[in-house]
């Protein structure tokens, strides 16, 4: 005949495990949230880096533009000077400077065209990537929202779980409940009260002595596994 005290302890154990599950899940949520937030941060940094590189190229392009304009005004100045000089060699020297500036402009413009093509393809890739990343960030925000809802549900249920546990402990003989609490502290994981089946403890799965095996069938006092010290019954 099963020990009625053990039967009560099995209910206590069920509620202990249920409460532990809620507490463990609650403890995990901030870590999960931090992980998702870090992902979002990285995604945003990637967008910023890509946008920054695009901006740098635009700056390079306007610098080239500026350089071309500078050369063009140089040429205009040289041409004006040519109208004023009297000597042939001075005139020739200015012609040389003009040709030099024109060659430099041609080179700058070639670089600028390459850069503009590069900017176009970079921008296209950036826009496409940005859309993908932003969709991913939206999903991640949704995950965080769901985590928050789960957290609230768990918090709401924790009080009820604690009350149910306290209620189940009422009326259990001190000898049993004290040993139960002691085993609970000792054992790394549930069960704290384990059934013996075919001479094996349901907690550590090791073979118990014949004495423990026989004793576990006697109601009236708690019995313990001689391998792991969990409370046992049969
Ligand atoms: Zn055991």
TrEMBL record:
Superkingdom of the organism of origin: Bacteria
Presence of the UniProt keyword Coiled coil in the record: yes
Keywords, sorted A to Z: Coiled coil
InterPro entries membership: Oxidative_Scav/Glycosyltrans (IPR052376)
The keyword Coiled coil appears for this protein: yes
Segments passing through the bilayer: none
Identification of the protein by name: C4-type zinc ribbon domain-containing protein
The organism's taxonomic lineage, starting at the top: Bacteria, Pseudomonadati, Verrucomicrobiota, Opitutia, Puniceicoccales
């Amino acid at each position: 005949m099963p020990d009625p005290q053990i039967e009560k302890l099995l209910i206590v154990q069920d509620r202990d495990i249920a409460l532990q599950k809620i507490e463990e899940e609650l403890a995990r949520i901030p870590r999960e949230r931090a992980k998702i937030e870090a992902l979002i941060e990285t995604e945003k940094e990637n967008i910023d880096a890509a946008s920054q590189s695009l901006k740098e190229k635009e700056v390079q392009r306007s610098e080239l533009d500026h350089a071309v304009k500078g050369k063009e005004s140089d040429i205009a100045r040289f041409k004006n000077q040519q109208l004023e000089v009297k000597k042939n060699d001075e005139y020739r020297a200015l012609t040389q400077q003009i040709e030099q500036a024109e060659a430099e402009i041609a080179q700058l413009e070639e670089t600028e065209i390459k850069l503009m093509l590069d900017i176009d393809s970079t921008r296209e890739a950036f826009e496409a990537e940005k859309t993908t990343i932003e969709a991913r960030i939206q999903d991640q925000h949704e995950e965080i929202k769901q985590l928050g809802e789960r957290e609230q549900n768990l918090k709401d249920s924790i009080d009820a779980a604690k009350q149910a546990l306290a209620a189940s402990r009422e009326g259990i003989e001190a000898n049993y409940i004290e040993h139960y609490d002691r085993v609970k502290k000792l054992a790394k994981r549930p069960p704290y009260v384990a059934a013996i089946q075919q001479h094996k403890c349901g907690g550590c799965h090791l073979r118990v002595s014949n004495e423990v095996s026989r004793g576990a069938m006697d109601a009236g006092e708690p019995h313990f596994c001689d391998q792991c010290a969990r409370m046992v019954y049969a």
